[in-house]
Amino acid sequence: xxxxxVEADGxxxxxxxxxxxxxxxxxxxxxxxxxxxxxxxxxxTNNVAEYKGLIAGLKAARELDPAAVVLVRMDSxxxxxxxxxxxxxxxxxxxxLAAEAAKVMPRAQVTYEWIPREKNKHxxxxxxxxxxxxxxxxxxxxxxxxxxxxxxxxxxxxxxQGPPGDAAKGAAAVRAAMASGGGTSPRAAAAANARAGSAQxxxxxxxxxxxxxxxxxxxxxxxxxxxxxxxxGLAGPVGKAGPVGLAAPADPTGRAASxxxxxxxxxxxxxxxxAPAAGPGGDGPGNAPATGAASGPGAAPAAATGQGWGPDxxxxxxxxxxxxxxxxxxxxxxxxxxxxxxxxxxxxxxxQAAAVAEALAARxxxxxxxxxxxxxxxxxxxxxxxRLGLTVTVxxxxxxxxxxxxxxxxxxxxxERHPEDLQAWLDSPKAAPTGGGESFASATRRISATxxxxxxxxxxxxxxxxxxxxxxxxxxxxxxxAPPEALFRMELSAASLSAxxxxxxxxxxxxxxxxxxxLR
Length: 520
Fold this sequence. Notes:
Strand content: 5-15%
Radius of gyration: 25 Å
Distance between the termini: 48 Å
Low-confidence stretches: 153-281, 288-310
């Protein structure tokens, strides 16, 4: 069955004002332009022009092959969500246009995907060419168009692999298919894996909503290598090509080694004797360098298993996880949770917040900003929200754990004053810090409930969550299906970015971990 990509856009110089649309039909494999459509439509709104661009693109695809499967890519969230059936159509001008678009091709043959504006340059250029022609009192002519040439350098049409999901479920689906007679053929493996979802990277969609143009790869595991720290103590950006997994070392047989949490902490002690040891939570002690990440026999790469169209689950909810900027306690690696002094950002922390705000503004995909109630997070979130023109919503469930009597202490000081309590805390997620703090098990229940509540409220959206070391690590750990001791195996620098995409089938994909490239 033929497959086409339709990119469409529309614009109005005045909203309402002189308006036009542009559409292009592309070969999803080669990126070749198969058809272009553009038209000046007189005075109209942006939304009307966008819908007319969609209709023109679908009609062009139908003319090429009425049996084709079509992926529509637009930077209009409104059109994508309404045509996908997730948003109601209330405006009287939109209803007939949406109904007309729905009739062009059977619904089963068309899926919709939101893309950032910078990824929609070809259709955008066509729309502007149409409006320019209208300004001259003319209509757009295909022979005069340069849209394909202008957009070709910016377009990356290599098929994204997806939909990303949970590696363990994907591998289980492959095994189930083999056990039921599916065999070991690439086609059988790909079909089984597509039903469960697999964590496969896409270099262009760390924060995006892109649907798949190809079947996911069967994944045996998510093992990765931690980025080294630079001289400033900031971990390098984890490879943006896809999910990052952090696993215990594997033995020569390929089985994951069983390592006690206390041993993990000892492995994580910095080589510099002047640098304090670190644990798994908080501003300093809760942040162990990830030196124990697997890179040996257990870190098997994903292998491609076949090509095809992935299941249509709609765009994922993507949580961009931002750890707050530095406070005065951060460089000293002191426990700083929700039961301490609630410090403000330091001057360095404010610079970090400004830098991450610029980076997120350049990417342009954040739709909502949600923050922990603690001051350092609210200040970081406000810097980003001000830059993006958004407001900050405070979410109590994103707060850091309460470190009890350890608040304000370094890891070494806590070990000296409360050695038995600290060892119990390292050995078991159920153990709480001295003096009635919050255990990791309790924090996991709280953060899981917060995650589920936010997912229900922000389905299909890209949301910035500004939080702390422990909540971010727990969200990543749960997405990977990693054991509790994985909290000791992740580095999470101040003002670092991580990202997790959550799909409608319950699978999750870790897209980014501890990216600090914006701070350099």
